[in-house]
Specification:
With 378 residues, the protein is an alpha/beta fold. It contains 14 helices and 11 strands. A 9-stranded mixed sheet has the order 1-2-6-5-4-3-7-8-9, sandwiched between helices. Helix 5 (125-140) packs parallel to helix 6. It is globular.
Length: 378
């Protein structure tokens, strides 16, 4: 896939991904179908109407993108586009990689072997110590530590790795230090590490955006280490995303009497790697002298039908295809392959129909790539 080759194309990419109901998967499908962001933008109103939207779709206004670009210039942030050499190679491999990421700092750190370190916000003293000291050891051995800049385990992981290189993935805009208690750490990472987000500058983080952030931590990392986590924890989302992407998952054991160990113990029962030292993690992922990635690999060409796995997009949408796919959806999210089997339609036709249903507000895609019918408005 070719990244934008001019300022005008960069502008159109940002307009497309910032438009209503356009997420990463939809963006990539639109680009594959129409070839350019400008052509996809022109098609959005008709596609959304075909998908059931009863009002004009909110296409991002040029003034909105101009303000975001101006905000990036003021804060020292820059944009990295899917398909370009600056885009992290491992992140490009996940399902629905973000088309555009905003970055503060030195993203070349993500070209080194990277370990995600995550855990509880309400961390114990022991957990904080493990996160900080192990992350420092990872850094000394040439690994970059990625985490989510939350309180507790995340913050300690960043602090331990800061002297050698750490990448913080945030749920809101890169210009919004959250939580405020980590404002100094945010500034230090922007200076000596890297902060990235797929969200527009100025956006405040929300619960749903934290889940999206977790998939990026997993996507950047060769393996994810969970230090402490409750039974229902965002850290477990990160571990699940890592496993789905074929990355290694590790957990630090803890006392069954400590609720902060419940998530780690569950991961271990499910087959996660047992980690009692930082060396356990590094040895399991690969040798400590593993070669650095050669810069950033070019992202796979998702426009190339020859590289496709059978989901060839139709030139025209059959009239009943959208109805068939919409009927198969429910409020229970299902994987795309299950939806294809349920409809009996070709993969490319289902993919194209889903784009129109998403643009029309009739379907929603979860951060893990599963699809469900959109929740009714209340």
């Amino acid at each position: 896939m070719k990244p934008p080759a001019s300022h005008a194309e960069e502008f159109d990419w940002l307009r497309l991904i910032r438009s209503e109901n356009v997420g990463p998967e939809t963006f990539h499908t639109l680009m594959r179908r129409f070839g350019t962001a400008a052509a996809a933008l022109a098609a959005l109103p008709d596609l959304a109407a075909a998908g059931g939207l009863r009002r004009p779709i909110a296409v991002a206004e040029p003034a909105l993108i101009e303000r975001e670009m101006a905000a990036a210039n003021r804060t020292g942030a820059h944009f990295v586009y899917f398909g370009g050499r600056a885009y992290p190679a491992l992140l490009a491999e996940i399902d629905g990689p973000p088309p555009v990421i905003a970055v503060l700092g030195d993203l070349s750190l993500a070209a080194r072997p990277t370990i995600g370190v995550v855990g509880s916000r309400q961390a114990s003293a022991a957990g904080r110590t493990i996160a900080r000291t192990w992350s420092a050891e990872f850094g000394r051995e040439g690994w970059t530590v990625a985490s989510g800049l939350a309180l507790g385990i995340d913050a300690e992981a960043h602090r331990g790795a800061l002297p050698t290189g750490t990448v913080a993935v945030v749920a809101g805009g890169v210009d919004k230090p959250r939580p405020e208690a980590n404002a100094d750490l945010h500034a230090a990472i922007a200076e000596d590490g890297a902060i990235l987000s797929e969200m527009p500058l100025g956006v405040e983080p929300t619960a749903r955006l934290f889940v999206r952030r977790n998939r990026l931590i997993a996507g950047l990392s060769r393996g994810v280490l969970v230090v402490e986590a409750a039974a229902r924890s965002g850290s477990l989302h990160t571990a699940n995303f890592a496993a789905a992407a074929g990355r290694d998952v590790f957990a630090v054991p803890g006392s069954p009497l400590d609720p902060r160990a419940a998530g780690c113990l569950a991961l271990l029962k499910d087959g996660a790697g047992l980690a009692t030292t930082a060396r356990d993690v590094m040895d399991a992922i690969g040798t400590t002298d593993a070669p650095m990635l050669p810069g950033f690999a070019e992202a796979p060409d998702i426009f190339d039908d020859a590289a496709d796995t059978g989901a060839r997009l139709p030139q025209e949408m059959p009239a009943d295809a959208i109805t068939t796919v919409a009927t198969a959806l429910s409020l229970t999210a299902v994987p795309l392959d299950m939806l294809i089997r349920a409809t009996g339609l070709p993969a490319g036709l289902v993919t194209a129909a889903l784009v129109e249903l998403e643009l029309g507000g009739q379907a929603e895609r979860e951060p893990d790539g599963t699809i469900r019918a959109a929740l009714p408005l209340t």
